[in-house]
Amino acid sequence: FSRPELTNILTSYPAVLICSLKKQIIPSFNLLRNLFQSDDKAIKTIKRYGAIFVYDFESYLYPNMNVLRGIGVPESNILMLLNRHPRTFLYSPVRLKEIVEEVKGMGIDSSTKKFLIAVLALRSMSKSTLEKKFDVYRRWGWSDQEINEAFGRYPLCMTVSEEKTMAIMDFLVNKMGYSSTLIAKEPCLVTRSLEKRIIPRAVFARELISQGLVNEFKLSTLFDTSEKVFIRMYIDRFVNKAPELLKLYKEKLKISEKKK
């Protein structure tokens, strides 16, 4: 660890200062190193959450690893999660068990990385907060089954604020005329930027359709492709036929940048 890194850990988590070097810090590091079979990964884990030294591994880390093992999460995925999101393992094992069983009940395969993303999504909020997010989707006509299926397709759709979800749904449904249930099949859209991606591309697409250059767009193609792919597929393709559209698209992007 460099001096600035140690300073950052100690100022962020001052409780580490009262941990015994011989009885707690060194043994904890050795346990992490043995789990990862790597000094580098152990160090990176500590850098991501320096307070890991404060916790009793017997009470938190090992029980939580066993919760994930017990539901069929591969060891490689467990270690990846520990390395990237160590806080997940320093959490009530009882609550983590509830979360993984809830995710499993939604039909997400526990052997996939998507399962861990879903666990992280639910772990990041209280039950009451999750219910509020469900209520937002219900207001747009989604059934509980559609909500669960959307979560299964793209778990991060539940991490978006209620305000952002409402704004994106309002734009796509009321201004663009897309079916709410169609958006339920493409839940990743609510995680995209309304100003930087959805509005500029929607305006561009609407003009292409009005000029008869294309008949329709798939939601995923229009809003979920990278900027590079979108430019190649549509802007470069039609720039000679409708050069004013490129100008329109760039203007919308500039407006969104100014709002940042």
Would you write up a description of this structure?
This protein has 260 residues and is mostly helical. It has 3 domains: 3-126, Transcription termination factor 3, mitochondrial (Alpha Horseshoe); 127-188, no CATH class; 192-260. Helices cover 66% and strands 0% of the residues. The longest helix has 17 residues, at 194-210. The two termini are 35 Å apart.
Quick structural summary:
Helix content is 66%, strand content 0%.
Structural key phrases:
transcription termination; 260 residues; Transcription termination factor 3, mitochondrial; 15 helices; transcription regulation; 0% strand; mainly alpha
Q: In what range is the share of β-strand residues? A: under 5%
Helix share bin: 55-70%
If you compute it from the alpha carbons, what radius of gyration comes out, rounded to the nearest whole angstrom?
23 Å
Number of strands: 0
Element pattern in H and E = HHHHHHHHHHHHHHH
Which fold name fills CATH's third level, the topology of the largest domain? Answer: Transcription termination factor 3, mitochondrial
Q: Any idea what the shape is? A: elongated
* Strand-pairing-aware structural class: mainly alpha
Which CATH class of the largest domain applies here? Answer: Mainly Alpha
Count of domain modules: 3
What is the level-2 CATH architecture name of the largest domain? Alpha Horseshoe
Itemize the secondary structure elements and their pairings:
Blueprint: H1 3-12, H2 21-36, H3 39-48, H4 61-70, H5 75-84, H6 93-105, H7 113-123, H8 127-139, H9 144-153, H10 162-175, H11 180-184, H12 194-210, H13 219-223, H14 227-238, H15 243-258
